[in-house]
C-alpha cells in the first residue's frame, strides 16, 4: 500500500447509486404496506404522490417509472415521431450510457453535439438545425438537456431562459434529464418550479436522491401528456403495485427530504473540493455545481487511491494524467470526505517519494 | 343493498396485484439497506439471488427486471429477430394486456390462436405453421405459453412434454410467461426445475407472489443468454440499485416463502370453489388450477357483490349472465373466502326474491 | 398427362403480378427519358402525376412509393402512433403476406378479425373495440380494408358508407389497401372519387394494373399528409429518379388506360366464371367481384391443371377438395380463358375416368 | 446576368441522379417485357442477374432493392441486432441524408466520427471502441464505409486492406455503401471483386450509374445472407415484377456498360478539374477520386453560376466563400464540361469587375 490512510468508513465515491435507501423512504414503504390496494396507480397514495409532484413543479401531470433510462425514453416518447431528432450533448447519459435505448425504442436519431462542459447553448443547438424541412434529414424537434449534466455542471436559470427562448422561437421542445435535478435545485437555490417553468418535460430523479428506485416524468403542458399512460405501459414502465413507487416519492417530498438529501450531497462535494483545492497536481476538470467532483490527477495517484476507495476513472490522456469522478450522496459524511482528502494528501506524498 | 353480508375483512379478490408485500420481502429489503453497494447487479446479494434462481430451476442464467410485461418482452428478445413470429393464445396477457409492447419493442408479429381454455396444444401450434420458408410470411419461431394461463388453467407436465417434443421437432423455441409460475408449481406438486426443463426461457414472477416488484427471466440454455445484459439495459430494465430487486428474490426463495405463498393462495381458491360449488346458477367457467376462480353467474348477482367486494367482470354474454374472476393471494385468509362465499349465498337469495 | 388440352397461350393465372408492363406505360417511360431532370419528385412530370391522382380521387395529396407493402405501411404511418392498433381482416394481405412489415416498421398491433368473405363490417369492427381508454390495451385507431379484398370480393358503396359512418362515430380512421382498386372501381361502375370519399387514406395500385412498379398513396385529408414526405423517405420509399415512377402513373391515367385494363381483367374473370359455372364439382368459393376467381374443386383436378397452367392452390380441406385462385390481368385474352376452361372440362372427364 | 456564357446543353451538375436511363437499360427493360413471368424473383432473368453480380464480385448471394437508402438499411439488417452500433463517417449519407432510416428501421445507434475527407481509418474506428462489453453502451459491430464517400473521395485498396485487417482483429464487420461503387472501381482500375474481397457486405449502385432505379446488395459470406429474403420483404423492398429490376442489372453488367458509364463520368470530372485548376480563387476542397468535384469558390461566383447551371452549394463559411459540388454522370459530355468551365472563367471576370 502506498499510503497509510485507508477508508475507515467504507463509503463509496463511485456513484450516488451506490448509496442505499433513505430511512424516510423505507418508512414510507412500510406505511404503504397495509392491506390491499388497487393496482396500476388508481389508488390514493399514487394520486397524492402525483399531486405533490405537480404542486412542487407546476407540472400538469406526473408519471412514475422505474429508472432513469426509462424516464428519458418515455419522456421523449411524448414529444417525438420517429423522423424527428433529439439534439443532445455528446457526453449525455442519453447518448452514451443507455445502450442505444432511445434509438431502439423511439426510432429517432440523436444529434450529439460536442460541448466543453456538458452544456448546450443556443449557438450549439443552432449548429444542428440545418436541413429543417428537407425530407432527407431527420428533423430536430427536441433539445435534451441534463440538469446536472453528466460532467456535474449545472445550467443557471439565465442559461435555461436563453435556451427556452431560443427553442420557442425555433419550434423546438425541451426535455430535461433530471436524474440529479434535486442537486441542481439545491445548487441554484431556486425551486423545482423555477427550473421546470423553462422546459416542456423533465424528469425528477428519486433513485440517486435516496429512493429504492423511482423516477418521475413531469409534463408541464397537459397536451403533451395525452398519450403518456399508453406510452408508459407499452414501454414496460407501468408498475402493478404502484403504491410502492408512489410511497417513495411521498417519502422524499414530505418534509423536503429530497432537498435536504441534495444539500447534504452538495455540501460534501463542496467540502471535498475545498479539501483538495490546494493539492499540487490535482485540478478540477469541470465546474463543481452539485455532487460530482471531476478531479484531474496523476494516474499513479488515482490507482493508489482505488486500492481503498471506489470511484470511476473517467478518462485518461495516455500520458500519465487522468480525470476521476468522485460522487457524493445523501449519506456521505464529513468523515468520509475528510478521510478521502487525507488519503489524497497522503498518496501525493508517497507517489512523490516513489517517483523521486 | 341486496344482501346483508358485507366485506368485513376488506380483502380484494380483484387481483393478486392488490396484495401488499410479504413480511419476508420487507425484511430482506431492510437487511439489504446497509451502507454502500455497487450498482447494476455487480454485488454479492445479486449474485446470490441469481444463483438461487438457477439452483431452483436448472437455468444457465437469471436476469431480474421490473415487471411482467418487461419479463415477457425481454425474454422474447433473446429468441427473436423481427421477421420471426410468436405463436400465443389469443387470450394471453402478451397479446391482450400489454398495450402492444411486444410488437413495438420487438417488431415481431404475434400469431394469436383461439383456445378453449387458454392453453396451446401441438395441434393448435401446428395450425399456425403454414408459410414457413415463404418470405411473405412472418416466420414462427417461439411458442409462448403462460403458466398459469390468463384464465387460470395450468399445463400439466405431460402437456408440457408434448409441446416440448413438438417444438423441438419443428424448430420452435418455448417461452413461458410465469407471472404465476409459483401457483402452477404448487398446483402440480412438482419443482420449478421440472417445469423449466420443458422450455427454453421462462419468467418467474415475484410481484404477484408477494414481492414489491420484481420478475426473473430464467434462461435454460446459456447460448440464449449471450445478449441478455445488453437487451435488458436497452429495454430500460436495468435497475441501478439492483440489490433491492435481488433482496426481494432472496426473501421469497429463502425458506420456500414463494411456495408457501402460492400454496396459501391456491388453497384459498380451492376453498372458494368448494364453497360455491353447490350454489344454484353459479358455475366454474374454467378448470381452477391455481389461484384464479372464474365463476359464471347472473349479472345481477355479480353487480350485487361488487358493492362490497372488488373483482373483475371478465365477460358478459349480453343476456344477463357473466363470468367474474376471483383471485386469491398469499394473504387471502379463510375468513376472507368464507365472507365472500356467504355474500354469494346471501346475494343469491336476495336476487331470487327481487326477481320473484 | 390426364388431359389433352394444354396451355397454348402460355398465360399465367397465378397472379396479376405475372403480367408484364402495359405498352402505354412503356411509352411513358421512354417519353420521360429525355435529358436531365431534378431528382426526388421536384419535377414537372411528378407534379403532373400527383395532380392527376388528386383530380381523379379528390385527394388532398398523393405520394408515390415502390410497392404495395410499402403503400400500406407508409399510408398507415400517417395515421398511427405505436400504441395504436389496426383492425383488419384476418385474411388481409397486410396481416398475412407482408412478413410482419407493419408490426416491425410501425410498432403497432394488428387486430385481425375472422371474416366470412374477407370483408369487415361495422359489427365486426365493433367486436374489437373493447378496452378503448384502457392503458393495458393497444388502442384501435385505424380500420384497414382492402378493395378488392384478398379473396377477390368488393365492398359496395353502401357497405363503405356504413363503415365510414360507423368509423366517424367511433373516432376511427379508414385506410384502404387499393392494390386492385382499379378492378373494384370497374366492378362497381363508380369513380375513384366515389370510393375515396368514404375513407381517409387509400392506395391506388399501379403494378397489378399494368405498371412496371409503382403505387400511389392518396391522402384525402390534408392534415394527415403533414408528415408524409419524411415518413416516405425514412421508410426507404423515396425514389431518386422519381420521374420514372411518375411516368408510369401518367401512362396509366391518361386516356383511362387504368380503367380499360381493369375492365379487361374483370371481363375475362367473368368469362371464366361463366365458362366453369356449370361444371360438376366446381364451385365459386367467394363472390367474384373483380379479377380473382376462387374455385373449389377436386384436388386431383387442380393438380392435373397445374401441369400446364400456373395458379395458386389457396387452401385444401385435407379430404380431396381444394380452393384454387385464378387471377386475370389486363392482358388476359378470351383465348386464354377459353383454353383454361376447356382444360378444366377435359380434366374433369379424365379425372372421372381415372377414379371410376 | 453577371456572365455571358449560359448553359447551352442544359446539363445538370446537381447529381448523377439527374441523369436519365441509359439506352442499354431501356433496351433490357423492353426485352424483359415479353409475356408472363413469375413474380418476386423466381424467374430466369432474375437468377441471371444475381449470377452476374456474384460472378463479378465473388459474392455468395445478391439481392436487389429499390433504392440506396434501402440497400444500406437492408444490408446492415443482415449484420446487426438493435443493441449493436454502426461506426460511420459523420458526413456519410447513412448518417446525414436518410432521414434517420437506420435508427428507425434497425433500432441501432450510429456512432458518427468526424473525418477530414469522409474516410474512416483504423485509428478513427478504434476511437469509438471504448465500452465494448459494457452493458450501458451500444456495442460497435459494423464499420460502415462509402465507396465513393459522400465527399467524392475513394478508399485505395491498401486502405481497405488495413481496415479489413483491423476489423477482423477486432470482431467488426464491414459494410460498404456502394451507391457509386462503379466510379470507385473505375478510379482504382481494379475489379469489383478486388474491392468486395475486403468487406463483408456491399451495395452496388445501379441508379446513379444509368439504371431507372435498382441497387444490389452483395453478401460475401453466405452465412450473413441467411435472413436476407425475409429482411428484404419485411423492409418493403421486394419487387413483385422483379424481372424489371433484374433487367436493369443485366443491362448494366452486359458488355461492361456499368464500367464504361463510370469511366465516362469520371473522365468528365477529371476534365472539369483540369479546366478549373488554374482559376484564381477556385480550389478543390477534397481529392477528386471519381465523379464528384468539390470546388471552393467565392459565394458570389457560385450564385452567378447557379442562374444557368444546376448544382449544390455544399457548405458556406459565412465569410463569402463556399464549397460547391459538381457531379458528372454517364451522359455528361465534353461540351457540357467545357461550357461550365467557360462559364466559371467568365463569371470570375465579371465578379472581379463588379467588386472592383
What is the 3D form of chain A?
globular
Number of strands of chain A: 11
Helix content of chain A: 40-55%
Summed up, the helix count of chain A is 14
Question: Mean of the pLDDT scores of chain A?
Answer: 96
H and E string of chain A: HHEHEHHEHEHEHHEEHHHEEHEEH
Low-pLDDT residue intervals, each spanning 5 or more residues of chain A: 1-5
Strand order of the largest sheet of chain A: 1-7-6-5-4-2-3
| Most extensive contact | A-B, 51 and 51 residues
Describe the fold and architecture.
The structure is a homotetramer of 356-residue chains. Chain A has 356 residues and is an alpha/beta fold. The first copy, chain A, has helices at residues 23-32, 44-57, 68-77, 93-96, 101-106, 122-126, 157-169, 181-188, 192-196, 228-234, 243-253, 257-276, 299-306, 334-355; strands at residues 61-65, 84-89, 110-113, 139-146, 173-177, 201-205, 215-219, 283-284, 292-298, 312-316, 321-327. Chain A has a seven-stranded mixed beta sheet with strand order 1-7-6-5-4-2-3, sandwiched between helices. In chain A, strand 4 (139-146), helix 7 and strand 5 (173-177) form a beta-alpha-beta unit. The radius of gyration of chain A is 21 Å and the shape is globular. Mean pLDDT of chain A is 96; it is low at 1-5. Chains A and B meet through helix 1, helix 3, helix 5 and helix 10 of A and helix 1, helix 3, helix 5 and helix 10 of B.
Amino acid at each position: 500500500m502506498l499510503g497509510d490512510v485507508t477508508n475507515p468508513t467504507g463509503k463509496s465515491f463511485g456513484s450516488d447509486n451506490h448509496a442505499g435507501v433513505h430511512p424516510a423512504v423505507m418508512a414510507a414503504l412500510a406505511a404503504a404496506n397495509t392491506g390491499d390496494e388497487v393496482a396500476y396507480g388508481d389508488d390514493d397514495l399514487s394520486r397524492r404522490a402525483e399531486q405533490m409532484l405537480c404542486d412542487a413543479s407546476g407540472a400538469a401531470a406526473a408519471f412514475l417509472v422505474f429508472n432513469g433510462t426509462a424516464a428519458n425514453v418515455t419522456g421523449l416518447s411524448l414529444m417525438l415521431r420517429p423522423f424527428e431528432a433529439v439534439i443532445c450533448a455528446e457526453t449525455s447519459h442519453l447518448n452514451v450510457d443507455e445502450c442505444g435505448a432511445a434509438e431502439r425504442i423511439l426510432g429517432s436519431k440523436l444529434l450529439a453535439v460536442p460541448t466543453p462542459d456538458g452544456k448546450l447553448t443556443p449557438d450549439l443547438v443552432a449548429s444542428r438545425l440545418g436541413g429543417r424541412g428537407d425530407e432527407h434529414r431527420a428533423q430536430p424537434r427536441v433539445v435534451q438537456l441534463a440538469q446536472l449534466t453528466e460532467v456535474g455542471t449545472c445550467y443557471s436559470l439565465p442559461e435555461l431562459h436563453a435556451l427556452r427562448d431560443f427553442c420557442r422561437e425555433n419550434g423546438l421542445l425541451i426535455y430535461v434529464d433530471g436524474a440529479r435535478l434535486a442537486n441542481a435545485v439545491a445548487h441554484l437555490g431556486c425551486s423545482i418550479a423555477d427550473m421546470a417553468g423553462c422546459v416542456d418535460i423533465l424528469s425528477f430523479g428519486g433513485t440517486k436522491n435516496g429512493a429504492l428506485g423511482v423516477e418521475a416524468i413531469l409534463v408541464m403542458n397537459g397536451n403533451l401528456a395525452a398519450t403518456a399512460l399508453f406510452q408508459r405501459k407499452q414501454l414496460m414502465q407501468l408498475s402493478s403495485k404502484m403504491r410502492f413507487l408512489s410511497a417513495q416519492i411521498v417519502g422524499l417530498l414530505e418534509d423536503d427530504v429530497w432537498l435536504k438529501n441534495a444539500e447534504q450531497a452538495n455540501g460534501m462535494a463542496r467540502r471535498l473540493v475545498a479539501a483538495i483545492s490546494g493539492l499540487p497536481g490535482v485540478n478540477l476538470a469541470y465546474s463543481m455545481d452539485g455532487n460530482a467532483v471531476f478531479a484531474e490527477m496523476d494516474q499513479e495517484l488515482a490507482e493508489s487511491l482505488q486500492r481503498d476507495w471506489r470511484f470511476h476513472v473517467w478518462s485518461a490522456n495516455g500520458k500519465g494524467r487522468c480525470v476521476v469522478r468522485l460522487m457524493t450522496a445523501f449519506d456521505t459524511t464529513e468523515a468520509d470526505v475528510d478521510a478521502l482528502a487525507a488519503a489524497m494528501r497522503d498518496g501525493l506524498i508517497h507517489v512523490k517519494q516513489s517517483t523521486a
